Amino acid sequence: MAQEVLIVDDEADIRTQIAGILEDEGYQARVAASGEEALEAVASRLPSLVILDVWLAGSAYDGIQLLELLKRDHPALQIVMISGHGTVDMAVNATKKGAYDFIAKPFQTDVLLHTIERALDDIKLKRENEALKTLTGGAEAELVGSSTALQEIRRSIERVAPTDSRVMITGPSGVGKSAVARLIHKRSNRADGPFIVLNCASLDEENFESALFGREPAAGEPRMVGVLEQAHMGTLLLDEVADMPDPIQGKIVRVLHSQRFQRVGGGNWVDVNVRVLASSNRDLQDAMKAGLFREDLYYRLNVVPLVIAPLADRRDDIPALAEHLIRRSATAKGRAPTPLTPDAVTALQAHDWPGNVWELANVAERLLLSASSDAPVQADAVVRAIGEDGADVLRWERAQEVMNQPLREAREDFEREYLLFHLTRFGGNISRTAEFVEMDRAALHRKLKGLGVQNVMRSAKE
Question: Model pTM?
Answer without folding.
Answer: 0.73
